[in-house]
Amino acid sequence: MEAEVFPVGANAGGLPEFAGHVHDAGHPAGQAVRALAHFKGVRRRMELRGTSGGVAVWDDFAHHPTAIATTISGLREKLGKARILAVLEPRSNTMKSGVMKDRLAQSLERADRVFCYSANLGWDAAEALAPLGARVRVMDDLRRLVDVVVDDARPGDQVLVMSNGGFGGIHELLLESLAVRKVPAAGA
Predict the structure, then answer these.
(1) Could you tell me if 57 and 128 lie in one domain?
(2) Model confidence pLDDT, tens digit, residues 86-112
(3) 39 has which bridge partners?
């Protein structure tokens, strides 16, 4: 039996809204349940890219404050007290222009560390993220950003990379660098 594609809007609000769309489209509920049972998820939404040196590296398409806050909250609820190192590339046109910069610090509040790639921004990311204090690092050199994240990461940490683009291959750079680094001794 060939799977049927259900027309659901990009902003669907979970299973209840999906069920409503299916019903409105005239499809039986059982058919929708069977289709969902085979759904493998959406790429770039909390996608585990790998684990290296005991550190997990996640990818998410979160690219504006609401999506960033939702993504971090979801990971926090899943992981409990594990450290979350949020790595952000404000890459969309609205983020690069600074339209949402005043909401950015609050959206990152639940992350333990925040690393922001500031290249090509029309605003001062360090100033916008200053309310987060010493747990924020902002840099405009990608290789240096990777090095700083790797130096901060320790086994059990979760590195959450958020961007709506390829972010210079940062996932692979992080995983490769984590694999070859020397892990500091406990308490060091």
Answers:
(1) yes
(2) 999 998 888 888 899 999 999 999 999
(3) none
When computed from its CA atoms, the radius of gyration of the chain, rounded to whole angstroms, is 19
In a domain, 88, yes or no: yes
Residues 33 and 109 in one domain: no
Could you list the residue range(s) of the whole structural domain that residue 83 is in? 47-180
Residues 100, 36, single domain; the answer is: no
Ordered DSSP codes for 95-144: HHHTTTHHHHHHHTTT-SEEEEE-TT-SS-HHHHHGGGGGGEEEES-HHH
At residue 160, φ and ψ (nearest 5 deg) are -110, 110
- Among 108, 96, 104, 162, smallest CA distance to 135 is for 108
CATH number at residue 54: 3.90.190.20
**Nearest of 22, 21, 44 to residue 164 by alpha carbon:** 44
Which positions of the chain have pLDDT values less than 50? 1-12
What's the confidence (pLDDT) of residue 94? 85
Q: Based on the domain organization, do 105 and 19 belong to the same domain?
A: no
Can you give the pLDDT at residue 95? 87
Same domain, 104 and 73: yes
- pLDDT at 125 (0 to 100): 96
Side-by-side strand order, sheet with 113-117: 47-52, 55-60, 158-162, 84-88, 113-117, 136-139
In this prediction, residue 36 carries a pLDDT of 63
Non-local (6+) Cβ contacts of 180 within 8 A are none
